[in-house]
Each structure stands twice: as structure tokens, then as C-alpha cells.
Amino acid sequence: MTSSSKKDLTLAALAAVFLILAAVFLTDALGRPKLPAPLPLVDTNFLSTATVRRSYADLVKAKDDLSDFDCYTCHEKGKAPPLRYDSRQNLIVAKEHADVVMGHGSHGRNNNCFNCHNETNLELLQSRDGRQLRFSDSPQLCGSCHGPTYRDWETGVHGRTGGYWNRTGEPTDRKACVNCHDPHSPHFPGRHPAPGPHGLHETADAPSTQPETHR
Amino acid sequence: METPEPVPDMNRRSFLRTSAVLTTGLAALAASLKPLMEMTDFPTAERFMQKYYKEMSKTDMEKVLKRIADDVEQQYGLRPEVRDYKPLNGVEYVYCLNLTRCIGCRKCVHACVAENNQSRSPEIQYIRVLKLPHGSLDIEKADHNYAPESVPEKGFFYMPVQCQQCKNPPCVKVCPVHATWQETDGITVIDYDWCIGCRYCEAACPYWARRFNFTKPSIPKERINPNMSYLGNRPRRQGVMEKCHFCIQRTRQGKYPACLEVCPTGARKFGNILDPSSEVSHILRTKRVFIQLKEEMGTNPRFFYYFDV
Known about the structure:
The complex is a heterodimer. By secondary structure, chain A is mainly alpha-helical. Chain A has helices at 3-27, 56-61, 138-145, 147-154, 177-180, and strands at residues 84-85, 91-92, 125-126, 132-133, 161-162, 173-174.
């Protein structure tokens, strides 16, 4: 073979290889890694800054249903409703007050309605130190028995204060005790946790099975 | 005189042949670069020529903020408000987290993602909530994949971990290009346009607080937070680091961070340690048991965990 025909052959072979390669690239013949299906978005309920409960003050502000607080649609003015106990000295709550489930402190130590509600005017609260308070001033009622916690709350250490840390902007928004604690059963309720982290290589179609450490 | 070298054996035909091969070769090369044409994330000349954050004048910054807003609008189809918030005078931020209160509900994790425009898929989250058995503080053995029907679980406590905003931050020291630094209010920030993605800082951080964008972040348009800041929550691109920055776009306007606002138990406390009447000052004065994570490393975190006793 002459050197020039050898060269011709190599060139032709090279051109062929290049042509095939170009075709492969252009048609994506080898396939492209598939884009993974996107992970599901988190339920927006988990993003809500609402507190676990709405207080009387919240209901007033939202112009919501206040019938539970209209004590005298059912009760007679000036006549304290009688408290009834079962044989084991547990308070029996009327079925009309099904939403009042008592469990204040271990062994129901603070279940007596009139530890907090005023006997002669049901629409007022009654603190331990003898003050009569409106429902919207309930933190002071709690404070009359929970002094240290109340003082922590006043400085923003217990509970939650939203809005502005520098107190120069709009008024700060200090949540009331009853926003987090049901006054009748104040233990903070458990809740369903938001979803945990997905692994780096995890996709909607291939959830990781191995628990990762750290990340 | 010497005779000139003979012209190489190059006639018209062989020239044509060689160029035919060259052309097919170039065509193959061009075809192999096809995926590049689909790339949308090319640095624009403007971004490429951008100055270092600390050297930008006000007008430089205005131009950059407009460029970022344009980029976001083009990518996500909505016009954001992008600003550059400077540290406030006489302010040093501190975070306190009450471990007796935290119930491990992870609302903070997702509120943070929403506020700070983190990628949803793949997922980037600044906060990891660790579940630990009572009496233990061995965070290397903690579980963060817990998924019970209800939290808290008996016998466990929960410890959310995010950037600890160290006074002595190892991440800042290892950055070869000074793309991350500590500001006067104590927040360690990242210039996403200066970061080269070497991940040294990620390796240096003892708290696993830094996150890397391995791929292009993806955020659905309807979940974009349009209130953005340069050093804070503007969308990142592939190949850069990010982490918690105490919600710069909120806190430097006097607001509380998003993780605090969403916490149902009030376990999270934030404020100015230089103000004696702030919540965090009260806590550091009156509570007794504090934990600075891995304090033996000398990082001196501005993030304090405590138990109510």
C-alpha cells in the first residue's frame, strides 16, 4: 500500500467515526440521566404561625362565634351553678360543657371551677388574690397561681412573642397563656410532626431506605 | 545558498479530504456540546464582572440588586424586592433554645425553608432536629429521621441544630476566597456570587450547618418568598454553599426570625444581647444550665441551648 492510500483510509475511517459520534450525540442515543420526580411539597399547615388555641380575645378580634362565653344565655344571673361530685370526689362536668375537660395539674389539683371563675358573675374570672378579671385578661389569673412562670412570660422568656425584637416597629405580639394552654387541661398537647429530611439522592420514586447520619 | 525545502505533498484532493474529516470532527464536537446549549444558568457578563461585596459602592450595589431581581423574574416569573440590609448599630444577635420546651415538631425546619427560598427538590434545609434519649447529649448518635404519629415521644428530647453563628467561626477561616465572613452583628454571611463551591467551609463546620447546592435548586413559583436580600434568602445557584443567616432579611428590619415565629411551644428565643432588657439577656442572666454545642472546640457559638430548671 502506498503511504497516500493508507492516509486516505485512516481519514475515511476517522470521518466515519466522527459522523457516528455526531449522530449519537444529536439523537441522545445513549440516553440522558432521567430528571428525578420532584419531592412532594410540605403541607402548608406546617408553615402556619397560628398558636395551638384561640383565646377569647382572638375570637373577639376575629368577630367569631362567642356563644360559649355568653354564660347567661343558659345560666340564671346571681345564682351560682352547683358543683357536683361523684363518689370519688371527682367533679362532674355538665354535658353542656363537653368542651370543658378538666385536668389541671396532676390529680386534678386545680379542677374547681370557682378557683378561676367568679361565682356571682360567671362572665368574670376570679384570681387567687381577689381580683375580678375579664376573660381577655386571663394571663393575670394564671399569674396569680403561677408567679414565676408569669414573670418569665412578662419578660418574653416563657411563651412566645412575635413581631419585632427591637420593639421599635409595630407592637409586639405576645401570645396569651390560653393560646398554648387549655385553661382546663393545660398540659401542652402532642402533635403530628412535619416530615423529616429526605436524603440527597432520594427522589419521589426512590425513597432512601437507609437512615443517614447527620445529613 | 540552499534550495528551499520541497513543498509538502499537498495537492488539492488531499486538502479537501483532510478538511472533510476536520469538518465531521468539528460537527461531532459541536454535537457533543449540545447539552451546554440547554444550560440556562450561564454566568452573565454582569455577574462575572461583579465586584467583591465589601468593595461595592452604593451604585454598584443598586445595579447588582436590579440584576438579581431581573434574574429571579426571568427564572421564576415574579418580581422580587431585593435589598441589601446592613448590620444595625449596637446590635449583636444571640439565639437561645429551650430544650425543655421543644417537642420536635419540625415546624421550624419548614418555615425556614419557606422564608429562605431553599431548594425543595433536591431538598435543602438549614435546621436538623435531633432526637436524643433523656440524659444523653451524644449528638453523634442522634436520630433525625424519627416519624411517630405524635411528638414528643416519652423518654426523649429534641434538639434543633442550625448555624451556631460562632464568635470564632472555623468556616470563615478556611474560605480561600473570603466569600464568607462574620458581620458586626455576629451573623456569618455568604456572598453567593463570590463563592467558588470548594466546600472547605462545610468540612470545617463542626455542626454540619452548611449546605451545598449539588444541582440547580428548584422552587415552585408559588412558594417563592419575594422579600429577598443579597446576603440572605435570594435564590442560590448550583455550586454554591448556603446556611442559616438568622433570617437577615427579617432580623435586620427588627423582626424575629421565621423559625421563632412558627414555634408552637415558644422554645425559641432571639434578640440583641447588648440590650439588657431583651429576652436573650434575661435568659442568660436568670437560667442556670446552658449548653454551647461542642464548646470544647473553641468556636464560641452565639447559639445557647438551655434547660428550664
